[in-house]
Design a protein that fits this description.
4 domains
């Protein structure tokens, strides 16, 4: 073996010298006239040292290092002839340890009198090379043929490097060696002085990727800010058998080329994780962007579900992702709940800035704009797209916050049915003030699923910042709405604005047998009913909270502005109050209020209950008791009526063992074959401002059974065929009331064993009732032609009232005075 050595310039001749221990031949070539030293050309196959004393070392052609180590001593100078390169092959190594303390920098320079960019080729360290070092090295004037001036496919310990006057990029590294090659200068406070780049065609570090079918980053590593961007023209895939983590530290800028996407986590066998760890100071954020500052300059990034399940997952800490969305895709796609974000920004996407699975939303938005900054800036679509394509979407409890600013929300666009159901533990979706959920047309929000698991829903809106749920089209009836199934755990809805639902004829909010409460909410734009709810849970939306105007819900602009109650089971709350929700409450069937151990229910002023044909409001049931109070007020009565006045309804029923106590109530419109109030062995007490009106048909009050009791005062029975009917032991005591305008009978008692009491009743005429019978029945025993409603035998109707304003008694003692109750109420106080 031998090495060609250049002769002196005076002789201009070459000579050959064998070097002991050498395993490579180097072909010598004469240096330029001004240069002295040693010339190299060809292969180095044995360990070789380029000494400072022999400077300059001149590459007259490519020098290839094979299976050996080339050491370049501190202070050595390497001159590169035009187009030449230094190539280190697999199994070889390059060590150029300069000495910055002694100012003995290793220099690679073009062998011309000017530092001409692109004069020479490159320093290339190929994959599989041994431990290599470039420390205190200055490299200038390379990059011929648009090659990177320094290109590393194996780890090379870089430090105190200066890159100048490259034709293109000065430095390129295979993706997986970026971190290992820069781990010495990177963490240093003066990293940007330890690695300097100036006057290059493109001041940046090119990241070489896509070279194999495997991941580009297969080992855990960190990239540091060297004050130039990392340039990724061919995409970046993070993933390998050891689940590598790529950490981008404060100030790092990564620029991606067209078609170049970042993927963290490749498949189940090649998991990976991305950690963006920027700083809060200006210029310290991590930036991922395109090569050009235009929306859609690069595709974006995919943070997949293939992360280490025992790790922390992907993170955005003081990060900025911008100018993505090439080809119409979302700029960032997140497919795992293992995600953390704080004070990060998504900006200038061509379309959607983010697409995310529902279970990841909490992790993304919980701290996204913790410092009050705007997290979404000038994107083509200023919404977060939520991929709701799974059977169960929210499977773990989550807290969704407004990812935008107060008063400037960034909506979540839900692209399908969103199901909240925890397979192992109930999942509750909590939605904070200012959040807007915009659902794809035809979609719905489902809480709880019998097969998939239990779920809950909580909204925490305010008057200024409601939680909004609406459709993408923003037109009435274009999505289904919210469905709280019987498998839901709870629903606590405050400050919700629910809009534009009811597609397909359903109620916009369907509330099953679910504990909970809705207050301070607005339901609008439904094509039909804004809400339907199971009778068992009706206090959730007409409970006592609705008495407070500040907490009352609002229903406006709906196809049917009524609350629909599905009366498919008895109401059994032991103690409850129903309050006026501001719109009528319509029942699908007979509403039974009863429980074996008894219940107490109070209905507050202004409440209006509507019933379909043949259906009733029933107090008590066989072997079940109830005590109900209708607590109306003057000017705000309770009202019970039919949905369809022409068809009527079944009226109010009070069953044996139950009682109804009412004030200021209007009960109207029972069907012709029904009574507005049926007392089947129960107790009915009506006082002060009540009105029972048949509209020309049916019976007002029908009482029967030995335990039936009627205590009526201060009200009106009118517009029926029969005003009040008693039979089979039912007892009646009515006073200071109006029984008038009933076409067949005012009061008809069919039990001859009882004498019913009707004192100071105004019968529709000043002259009193019409009693057609003077039968000796032991009660009145006289006929009377007063012109008012008819009264049957076995009714004591004296004294009657002569008007309905003050109910003054008729003068005198009346007929059969000796046998009737003495009119002690001759000076009765006015009722109104």
């Amino acid at each position: 073996m031998g090495i060609d050595r250049a002769a002196s310039l005076r002789r201009g001749a070459a000579w050959r010298l064998a070097v002991a221990g050498a395993t490579a031949w180097l072909a010598a070539a004469p240096p330029p006239a001004a240069a002295q030293g040693r010339s190299w050309c060809g292969e180095i196959t044995s360990n070789t040292v380029w000494r400072e004393a022999d400077r300059p070392h001149i590459l007259t052609c490519d020098v290839v290092v094979r299976n050996s180590t080339l050491v370049i001593q501190p202070g050595a100078q390497v001159l590169m002839n035009a187009g030449t390169s230094l190539i280190v092959k697999a199994g070889a190594a390059l060590q150029a340890p300069g000495n910055p303390q002694a100012r003995q920098t290793v220099q690679f320079l073009p062998n011309d009198r000017e530092i001409t960019p692109g004069f020479w080729g490159q320093i290339l360290v190929e994959a599989g090379a041994g431990e290599s070092v470039l420390n205190d090295v200055s490299v200038r004037g390379g990059g011929h043929g648009d090659k990177p001036m320094v290109e590393l496919h194996s780890p090379v310990a870089l430090n105190q490097m200066s890159f100048q006057s490259a034709l293109g990029v000065p430095l390129a590294l295979r993706a997986d060696v970026v971190g290992p090659s820069l781990e010495i200068p990177g963490p240093q406070p003066g990293a940007c002085t330890a690695m300097t780049f100036s006057r290059n065609g493109a001041d940046g570090i090119r990241v070489l990727s896509g070279l194999t079918g495997d991941g580009d980053i297969v080992t855990t590593q960190s990239w540091y800010n060297l004050c130039v961007p990392y340039l990724v023209p061919a995409g970046l895939r993070i993933g390998g058998p050891d689940a590598p983590i790529l950490t981008l530290n404060q100030g790092v800028v990564v620029k991606f080329g067209p078609g170049s996407a970042l993927i963290a986590g490749i498949d189940d066998a090649n998991r990976g994780q991305l950690d963006l760890s920027g700083g809060s100071e200006p210029g310290k954020e991590v930036v991922l962007t395109g090569m050009t500052d235009t929306p859609g300059a690069w595709p974006g990034m995919d943070l997949t579900e293939f992360v280490d399940p025992d790790g922390l997952g992907h993170s955005f800490i003081n990060a900025r992702v911008q100018h993505g969305g090439q080809g119409g895709r979302p700029m960032v796609r997140i497919r795992t709940p293992l995600i953390t974000a704080a004070d990060s920004v998504f900006a200038h996407a061509a379309g959607y800035p983010v697409e995310i699975i529902p279970d990841a939303v909490d992790g993304l938005v919980s701290g996204l704009n913790a410092s009050g900054g705007d997290a979404f800036v000038q994107n083509g679509v200023q919404r977060i797209r939520v991929d709701a394509s799974a059977e169960a979407d929210v499977t773990i409890s989550a807290n969704w916050k407004n990812p935008g600013l107060a008063g400037k929300p960034v909506p979540f666009e839900i692209d399908g049915d969103l199901t909240v159901a925890g397979p192992t533990r109930a999942a509750t979706l909590q939605v904070q003030a200012g959040v807007e959920l915009v659902f794809k047309d035809g979609a719905e929000l489902v809480v709880g699923d019998a097969a998939l698991g239990r779920g809950g829903l909580e909204t925490k809106g305010t008057a200024r910042e409601p939680v909004v749920m609406t459709s993408l089209s923003d037109r009435p009836g274009t999505w289904k709405g919210v469905r709280l199934t019987d498998a839901a755990l709870t629903a606590q809805l405050t400050g919700l604005r629910l809009e534009n639902g009811g597609q397909g004829g359903r109620a916009m909010l369907e509330w099953g047998r679910v504990a909970g409460l809705m207050t301070e909410s607005t339901l609008t734009g439904a094509t039909g009913y804004p809400v339907s709810i199971a009778l068992s849970n009706v206090p959730a939306i007409i409970g006592e909270e609705q008495q407070d105007p500040a907490r009352r819900n609002a229903y406006t602009g709906n196809g049917t502005d009524r609350i629909l109650v599905r009366a498919d089971a008895p109401y059994t709350d032991k103690l409850a109050r129903w309050a006026d929700p501001g719109v009528p409450v319509e029942f699908t069937d007979t509403a039974v209020v009863a429980k074996a151990t008894g219940i107490a229910l109070t209905l507050s002023p202004g409440l209006e209950l509507w019933f379909p044909a043949g259906k009733a409001f029933q107090v008590g049931d066989r072997n079940a008791r109830a005590a109900v109070v209708f607590e109306g007020e003057a000017g705000r009565p309770l009202r019970l009526r039919p949905v369809d006045p022409a068809a009527g309804w079944g009226g109010v029923r009070v069953i044996a063992g139950a009682s109804l106590d009412a004030r200021h109530v209007e009960i109207t419109g029972a069907a012709d074959d029904a009574a507005n109030v049926t007392v089947d062995g129960g107790v009915l007490s009506l006082h002060d401002g009540w009105r029972i009106d048949g509209g020309g048909r049916g019976t007002g009050v029908d009482a029967f059974g030995a335990s039936a009791r009627l205590d009526l005062s201060g009200g009106t029975v009118t517009g029926h065929r029969v005003g009040i009917r008693t039979r089979d032991g039912a007892r009646l005591d009515i006073s200071r009331s109006v029984v008038g305008g009933n076409t067949e009978w005012g009061i008809r008692n069919e039990d001859p064993a009882l004498c019913q009491l009707a004192k100071l009743v105004y019968w529709g005429r000043p002259g009193g009732p019409t009693d057609p019978s003077d039968a000796e029945e032991g009660c009145m025993n006289t006929a009377w032609e007063g012109g008012g409603d008819k009264v049957s035998d076995h009714v004591n109707w004296w004294p009657y009232a002569t008007d309905d304003a003050t109910f003054p008694p008729a003068p005198g003692l009346g007929p059969n005075a000796a046998r009737v109750f003495v009119p002690v109420a001759a000076n009765a106080a006015p009722l109104r």
